[in-house]
C-alpha cells in the first residue's frame, strides 16, 4: 500500500496556494483574441526591428526578475534548487531568445525557387516563397519548467512576427502570476496576454480560434487540446514526452555513462519530458552501473532531505503516484534499490522528495513501464544481444528522446536508422533540447511539429508562394483552347523520363 506523506500543518501553511484572481470567462478570452487579431490586421507584418525589440523586452524582463523567478518556482514546488532554476529557466530562456533574435533577418528572407516548366523561368517568370506571420498564437505551457517553456517558444513566435495569448499551468500559481506581471509590465494586451486559471479556463482557452496553438504537457491533456482545437480547424503543435529510452552499448564507459544518466534523471527530480525513462544495458554491466549510480548520487547529494540542490516532486498527487509505482514493483518481486546516502527518513518531511530509485528488470506489465514516470525512478532492463534493444524500443510508442552510450559506429547507425524518436543525444541525455539552432519536437505519440531554430520560425509562419508570370503572352497562349500542334509538341517535351 502507498503511504501518505506526512506534512506538518505549520509547514503546509507555507505552501498554501496564493489568493486566486477572478477566473476569466470564455467571452473575456474571445474579447482578448479579437483585440489581438484586429491589431494584427491593422499593423500588418511586424518589421525586423519590431520583432527584435519585442524579444529584447522579453530578455530584459527575465533579467529584471531573475531573483524573483527561482523563489516563485521553489514555492510552487515546495522546494526547487535555486541554481537549477537559474540554469534551466532563467539562463536557458535568455540563450534561446538571443539565438532567435540573431537569426531573424536570415529567416525572414524570401526563398527563391526554380520555375516550372523551366521555359517560363527562361522567359521572365519568377517564383519565391515569403514567410508571413500567422496572427495570434495560443501557448499552453507546463509546470515542470514553467518559465523556459513559456519564454523559450516565444523566440520562434516573435521571430515569426506573431502576437500571443499564454495559458500557464495552474500547478505553479505563483510562477504563473509572476509571469503575468512580467508581461503586463512590458507588453500591451494586443501584443501579449496571460490567462491564469484551472482546467475549466484551459478548456475554454483550447477552444479559441487561434491561428496556431502550441501545447506542452501530458498526452492525456494533449488529446483534449487537439480535440477542442479541431472544432475551429486550428493547427496544433504538441510536445508530449513519452518514455525516453537509454541504450548502453558493451563498448560504453559505464562509469561515465552512469554519471551522466543519473545527473539527467535527478535534474528537477526527473520531472522532465526528456528524462531517461528506462535503461537497456548488457547483463555483464549491471553491477558496475548500479555501483557507479550509487557513487554518483552520493557525490552530488551526500544528503537529500534538506539538500537545497535536490528538487521536490511538484505536489502530493504526483508524490503518491510515484510511490505507487515503487510499491507495485516491490509487490511483484522486482528488486528495488533506493539510493539514500544519508539513510534519511522520507515519510515525514516538509517537501515531497523521493530519493533516486533503481528498479532492476521490472516486468513490462507494471505501470512504471507503461506510463511516463516524471520522477526520480529509473527502471533498468538487461539484454544479451544488442539487437534486442532495437526490438524493445520499437515495440513501444516513439519517444521524445533516445540516448545511445557507446563507441561502436555500426551500433549507432543501427540506432539512428532503425528507430524513430523526436531527437537523439549520443553519450549523454537531454542535451539535444539545448541546441537552439536545431528543431526540437516529438514524433507520433511524443508530439508533432517543432520549435527552436529556423524550423520553429517556419512552424509559426505561413509559407506563401508568389508566382509572377512572364509578360510574353504568346508563350502561355499555346496552352489555351483551341489546342493545336504547338500544344501537343510542348506536352510531348514534358511527358518523358
Provide an overview of this structure.
- This protein folds into two domains: 17-240 and 451-461, Aldehyde Dehydrogenase, Chain A, domain 1 (3-Layer(aba) Sandwich); 244-436, Aldehyde Dehydrogenase, Chain A, domain 2 (3-Layer(aba) Sandwich).
- The strands form three sheets. Strands 10-11-12-9-8-13-14 form a seven-stranded mixed β-sheet, sandwiched between helices. It has a six-stranded mixed β-sheet with strand order 5-4-3-6-7-15, sandwiched between helices. A three-stranded antiparallel β-sheet has the order 1-2-16.
- It is built from 19 helices and 16 strands.
- The protein has helices at residues 9-12, 26-43, 48-64, 68-77, 82-108, 118-122, 148-159, 173-186, 199-206, 219-230, 254-266, 286-300, 316-331, 367-370, 387-395, 409-418, 453-459, 473-476, 485-494, and strands at residues 111-112, 126-133, 136-140, 163-167, 192-194, 212-216, 236-239, 244-248, 276-282, 335-338, 357-360, 377-383, 401-405, 423-426, 447-448, 461-468.
Short description:
The chain has 497 residues and is α/β, with parallel strands linked by helices.
Search tags:
single chain, about 500 residues, alpha/beta, Aldehyde Dehydrogenase, Chain A, domain 1, Aldehyde Dehydrogenase, Chain A, domain 2, 2 domains, six-stranded mixed beta sheet, about 15% strand, disordered N terminus
Shape: globular
User: Could you give the count of β-strands?
Assistant: 16
Please report the first level of CATH classification, the CATH class of the largest domain: Alpha Beta
Structural class call reads alpha/beta
Provide the spatial order of strands within the biggest beta sheet: 10-11-12-9-8-13-14
Terminal CA distance reads 70 Å
CATH architecture of the largest domain: 3-Layer(aba) Sandwich
CATH topology-level fold name of the largest domain: Aldehyde Dehydrogenase, Chain A, domain 1
Instruction: Please summarize the sheet with the most strands.
Output: 7 strands, mixed
Report the sheet-strand fraction.
Answer: 15-25%
Overall mean confidence score, pLDDT: 93
Number of helices: 19
Radius of gyration: 26 Å
Q: Supply the CATH superfamily name of the largest domain.
A: Aldehyde Dehydrogenase, Chain A, domain 1
Query: Unreliable runs, pLDDT <50, ≥5 residues?
Result: 1-17
Domain tally: 2
**What share of the residues lie within helices?**
40-55%
Amino acid at each position: 500500500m502507498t503511504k501518505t506523506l506526512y506534512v506538518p500543518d505549520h509547514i503546509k501553511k507555507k505552501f498554501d496556494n496564493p489568493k486566486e484572481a477572478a477566473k476569466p470567462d470564455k467571452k473575456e478570452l474571445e474579447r482578448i483574441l479579437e483585440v489581438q487579431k484586429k491589431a494584427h490586421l491593422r499593423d500588418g507584418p511586424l518589421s525586423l526591428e519590431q520583432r527584435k525589440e519585442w524579444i529584447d523586452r522579453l530578455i530584459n524582463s527575465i533579467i529584471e526578475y531573475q531573483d524573483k523567478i527561482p523563489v516563485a518556482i521553489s514555492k510552487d514546488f515546495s522546494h526547487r534548487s535555486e541554481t537549477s532554476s537559474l540554469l534551466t529557466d532563467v539562463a536557458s530562456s535568455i540563450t534561446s531568445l538571443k539565438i532567435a533574435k540573431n537569426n531573424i533577418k536570415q529567416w525572414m528572407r524570401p526563398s527563391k525557387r526554380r520555375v516550372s516548366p523551366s521555359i517560363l523561368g527562361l522567359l521572365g517568370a519568377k517564383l519565391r516563397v515569403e514567410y508571413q506571420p500567422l496572427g495570434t498564437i495560443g501557448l499552453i505551457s507546463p509546470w515542470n519548467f514553467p518559465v523556459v517553456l513559456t519564454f523559450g517558444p516565444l523566440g520562434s513566435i516573435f521571430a515569426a512576427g506573431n502576437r500571443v495569448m499564454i495559458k500557464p499551468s495552474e500547478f505553479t500559481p505563483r510562477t504563473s502570476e509572476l509571469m503575468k506581471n512580467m508581461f503586463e509590465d512590458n507588453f500591451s494586451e494586443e501584443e501579449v496576454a496571460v490567462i491564469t486559471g484551472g482546467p475549466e479556463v484551459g478548456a475554454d482557452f483550447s477552444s479559441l480560434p487561434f491561428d496556431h496553438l502550441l501545447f506542452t504537457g501530458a498526452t492525456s491533456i494533449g488529446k483534449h487540446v487537439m480535440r477542442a482545437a479541431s472544432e475551429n480547424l486550428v493547427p496544433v503543435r504538441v510536445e508530449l514526452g513519452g518514455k525516453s529510452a537509454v541504450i548502453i552499448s558493451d563498448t560504453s564507459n559505464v562509469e561515465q555513462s552512469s554519471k551522466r544518466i543519473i545527473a539527467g534523471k535527478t535534474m528537477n527530480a526527473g520531472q522532465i519530458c526528456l528524462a531517461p525513462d528506462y535503461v537497456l544495458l548488457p547483463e555483464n554491466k549491471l553491477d558496475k552501473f548500479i555501483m557507479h549510480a550509487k557513487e554518483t548520487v552520493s557525490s552530488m547529494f551526500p544528503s537529500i532531505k534538506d539538500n537545497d540542490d535536490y528538487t521536490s516532486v511538484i505536489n502530493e498527487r504526483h508524490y503518491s503516484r510515484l510511490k505507487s509505482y515503487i510499491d507495485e514493483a516491490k509487490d511483484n518481486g522486482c528488486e528495488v534499490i533506493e539510493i539514500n546516502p544519508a539513510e534519511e527518513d522520507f515519510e515525514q518531511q516538509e517537501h515531497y522528495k523521493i530519493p533516486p530509485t533503481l528498479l532492476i528488470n521490472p516486468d513490462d506489465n507494471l505501470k512504471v513501464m507503461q506510463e511516463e514516470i516524471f520522477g526520480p525512478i529509473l527502471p533498468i532492463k538487461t539484454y544479451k544481444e544488442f539487437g534486442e534493444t532495437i526490438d524493445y524500443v520499437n515495440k513501444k510508442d516513439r519517444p521524445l528522446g533516445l540516448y545511445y552510450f557507446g563507441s561502436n559506429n555500426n551500433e549507432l547507425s543501427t540506432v539512428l536508422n532503425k528507430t524513430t524518436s523526436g531527437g537523439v543525444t549520443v553519450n549523454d541525455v537531454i542535451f539535444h533540447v539545448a541546441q537552439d539552432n536545431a528543431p526540437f519536437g516529438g514524433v507520433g505519440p511524443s508530439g508533432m511539429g517543432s520549435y527552436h531554430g529556423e524550423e520553429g520560425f517556419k512552424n509559426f509562419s505561413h509559407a506563401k508562394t508568389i508566382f509572377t508570370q512572364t509578360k510574353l503572352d504568346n508563350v502561355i497562349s499555346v496552352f489555351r483552347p483551341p489546342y493545336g500542334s504547338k500544344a501537343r509538341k510542348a506536352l510531348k517535351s514534358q511527358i518523358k523520363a
